[in-house]
Amino acid sequence: MQPQNVHSVLAVGENFDYALFRVAIAFAENGVQVWFISPKAFDKAPKELKTPDKEILQLITFMYLKDHNDLVTQLNGIHLWRKIPSVIILSGYEHYCDFSSVNYKPLQAALITTSLLDSVGVCAAKKGEKIVLVVSCVKLVEANLPRLQVLKDLYFKDSVYKADDDKFVENIIEMLK
Predict the structure, then answer these.
(1) Do the Cβ atoms of 147 and 140 come closer than 8 Å?
(2) Predicted pLDDT at 173
(3) pLDDT digits over 27-53, tens only?
(4) How far is the C-alpha of 79 from the C-alpha of 155, rounded, in Å?
(5) Which domains does the chain show, CATH number per domain?
(6) Widest CA span in the chain
(7) Separation of alpha carbons 161 and 14, rounded Å
(8) What is the pTM for the complete model shown?
Protein backbone atom coordinates (compact mmCIF):
# COMPACT_ATOMS: atom_id res chain seq x y z
CA MET A 1 0.00 0.00 0.00
CA GLN A 2 2.50 2.59 -1.22
CA PRO A 3 1.47 6.08 -2.28
CA GLN A 4 2.85 7.14 -5.64
CA ASN A 5 6.41 8.56 -5.56
CA VAL A 6 7.08 7.17 -2.07
CA HIS A 7 9.92 4.85 -1.09
CA SER A 8 9.49 3.43 2.40
CA VAL A 9 12.10 1.42 4.27
CA LEU A 10 11.74 -0.36 7.61
CA ALA A 11 15.08 -0.76 9.36
CA VAL A 12 15.34 -3.25 12.23
CA GLY A 13 18.30 -3.51 14.61
CA GLU A 14 19.87 -1.82 17.62
CA ASN A 15 21.46 1.55 18.41
CA PHE A 16 20.08 3.56 15.51
CA ASP A 17 20.62 7.15 16.64
CA TYR A 18 24.14 7.59 15.27
CA ALA A 19 23.44 5.76 12.00
CA LEU A 20 20.15 7.59 11.37
CA PHE A 21 21.82 10.92 12.09
CA ARG A 22 24.45 10.04 9.48
CA VAL A 23 21.69 9.17 6.99
CA ALA A 24 20.02 12.54 7.65
CA ILE A 25 23.32 14.35 7.13
CA ALA A 26 24.05 12.44 3.92
CA PHE A 27 20.72 13.53 2.44
CA ALA A 28 21.13 17.12 3.69
CA GLU A 29 24.61 17.29 2.13
CA ASN A 30 22.84 16.73 -1.19
CA GLY A 31 20.55 19.69 -0.55
CA VAL A 32 17.57 17.62 0.60
CA GLN A 33 15.15 18.84 3.29
CA VAL A 34 14.99 16.18 6.07
CA TRP A 35 12.68 15.65 9.03
CA PHE A 36 14.19 13.59 11.86
CA ILE A 37 11.49 12.44 14.28
CA SER A 38 12.38 10.78 17.58
CA PRO A 39 10.75 10.21 20.97
CA LYS A 40 13.88 11.57 22.67
CA ALA A 41 16.16 14.52 22.00
CA PHE A 42 19.77 14.31 20.91
CA ASP A 43 21.98 15.72 23.63
CA LYS A 44 24.77 16.32 21.14
CA ALA A 45 26.17 14.96 17.91
CA PRO A 46 28.07 11.67 18.32
CA LYS A 47 31.79 12.19 19.06
CA GLU A 48 32.82 10.10 16.06
CA LEU A 49 30.96 12.42 13.71
CA LYS A 50 32.43 15.64 12.40
CA THR A 51 29.84 18.33 13.04
CA PRO A 52 28.36 19.34 9.69
CA ASP A 53 28.31 22.92 8.48
CA LYS A 54 25.49 25.17 9.64
CA GLU A 55 23.96 25.17 6.14
CA ILE A 56 23.69 21.37 6.23
CA LEU A 57 22.14 21.29 9.70
CA GLN A 58 19.58 23.91 8.63
CA LEU A 59 18.19 21.38 6.15
CA ILE A 60 17.40 18.96 9.00
CA THR A 61 14.35 19.61 11.16
CA PHE A 62 14.51 17.70 14.43
CA MET A 63 11.18 16.83 16.05
CA TYR A 64 10.94 15.25 19.45
CA LEU A 65 7.45 13.81 19.77
CA LYS A 66 6.83 12.02 23.05
CA ASP A 67 3.99 9.70 22.06
CA HIS A 68 1.80 8.44 19.23
CA ASN A 69 -0.72 11.26 19.72
CA ASP A 70 1.95 13.92 19.18
CA LEU A 71 3.28 12.00 16.19
CA VAL A 72 -0.08 11.63 14.44
CA THR A 73 -1.00 15.27 15.18
CA GLN A 74 2.26 16.47 13.64
CA LEU A 75 1.90 14.22 10.60
CA ASN A 76 -1.70 15.32 10.03
CA GLY A 77 -0.53 18.95 9.84
CA ILE A 78 2.29 18.35 7.36
CA HIS A 79 0.40 20.08 4.56
CA LEU A 80 0.56 23.33 6.58
CA TRP A 81 4.35 23.37 6.80
CA ARG A 82 6.32 25.88 4.77
CA LYS A 83 9.35 23.61 4.32
CA ILE A 84 8.09 20.27 3.04
CA PRO A 85 10.62 17.45 3.58
CA SER A 86 11.91 15.12 0.89
CA VAL A 87 13.05 12.63 3.53
CA ILE A 88 11.32 11.68 6.78
CA ILE A 89 13.29 9.60 9.26
CA LEU A 90 11.39 8.13 12.19
CA SER A 91 13.45 6.74 15.04
CA GLY A 92 11.70 4.65 17.69
CA TYR A 93 8.86 3.05 15.74
CA GLU A 94 8.57 0.51 18.58
CA HIS A 95 8.02 3.37 21.05
CA TYR A 96 5.14 4.86 19.08
CA CYS A 97 3.51 1.52 18.20
CA ASP A 98 4.17 -0.07 21.62
CA PHE A 99 4.80 -3.54 20.16
CA SER A 100 5.95 -4.99 23.50
CA SER A 101 2.91 -3.97 25.52
CA VAL A 102 0.44 -6.55 26.76
CA ASN A 103 -2.13 -3.93 25.70
CA TYR A 104 -0.75 -3.70 22.15
CA LYS A 105 -3.30 -2.14 19.81
CA PRO A 106 -2.84 -3.29 16.21
CA LEU A 107 -5.29 -0.69 14.88
CA GLN A 108 -3.31 2.07 16.57
CA ALA A 109 -0.07 0.75 15.03
CA ALA A 110 -1.78 0.65 11.63
CA LEU A 111 -3.06 4.22 12.12
CA ILE A 112 0.46 5.42 12.93
CA THR A 113 1.89 3.66 9.90
CA THR A 114 -0.79 4.83 7.49
CA SER A 115 -0.46 8.38 8.86
CA LEU A 116 3.26 8.22 8.07
CA LEU A 117 2.60 6.97 4.55
CA ASP A 118 -0.23 9.46 3.94
CA SER A 119 2.00 12.32 5.08
CA VAL A 120 4.82 11.20 2.84
CA GLY A 121 2.31 10.89 0.00
CA VAL A 122 1.19 14.49 0.60
CA CYS A 123 4.84 15.59 0.46
CA ALA A 124 5.32 13.72 -2.82
CA ALA A 125 2.22 15.30 -4.36
CA LYS A 126 3.15 18.83 -3.22
CA LYS A 127 6.78 18.57 -4.32
CA GLY A 128 6.21 16.47 -7.42
CA GLU A 129 9.16 14.24 -6.56
CA LYS A 130 10.03 10.97 -4.87
CA ILE A 131 9.90 11.18 -1.08
CA VAL A 132 11.77 8.83 1.21
CA LEU A 133 10.50 7.40 4.50
CA VAL A 134 12.98 5.59 6.76
CA VAL A 135 11.47 4.01 9.88
CA SER A 136 13.65 2.33 12.51
CA CYS A 137 12.57 -0.28 15.02
CA VAL A 138 14.65 -2.08 17.62
CA LYS A 139 14.80 -5.83 17.28
CA LEU A 140 11.75 -7.25 19.05
CA VAL A 141 11.52 -10.37 21.16
CA GLU A 142 10.37 -13.41 19.21
CA ALA A 143 6.83 -13.34 20.59
CA ASN A 144 6.25 -9.79 19.29
CA LEU A 145 7.76 -10.24 15.82
CA PRO A 146 4.40 -11.09 14.16
CA ARG A 147 3.10 -7.66 15.20
CA LEU A 148 5.89 -5.94 13.27
CA GLN A 149 5.80 -8.44 10.39
CA VAL A 150 2.18 -7.63 9.53
CA LEU A 151 2.97 -3.90 9.28
CA LYS A 152 6.15 -4.57 7.31
CA ASP A 153 4.32 -6.74 4.79
CA LEU A 154 1.42 -4.31 4.36
CA TYR A 155 3.13 -0.94 4.37
CA PHE A 156 6.86 -1.00 3.64
CA LYS A 157 8.42 -1.35 0.22
CA ASP A 158 11.80 -2.42 1.58
CA SER A 159 13.33 -3.58 4.82
CA VAL A 160 16.89 -3.81 6.05
CA TYR A 161 18.54 -5.25 9.13
CA LYS A 162 21.14 -3.01 10.79
CA ALA A 163 24.22 -4.77 12.08
CA ASP A 164 27.08 -2.41 11.16
CA ASP A 165 26.65 1.39 11.15
CA ASP A 166 28.82 2.07 8.09
CA LYS A 167 27.22 -0.62 5.94
CA PHE A 168 23.75 0.39 7.12
CA VAL A 169 24.24 4.03 6.11
CA GLU A 170 25.71 3.01 2.74
CA ASN A 171 22.87 0.54 2.11
CA ILE A 172 20.15 3.06 2.96
CA ILE A 173 21.68 5.79 0.78
CA GLU A 174 22.23 3.38 -2.12
CA MET A 175 18.75 1.86 -1.80
CA LEU A 176 17.12 5.26 -1.96
CA LYS A 177 19.03 6.83 -4.85
Answers:
(1) yes
(2) 82
(3) 999 999 999 999 998 776 666 777 788
(4) 21
(5) 6-175 (3.40.50.300)
(6) 45
(7) 9
(8) 0.93
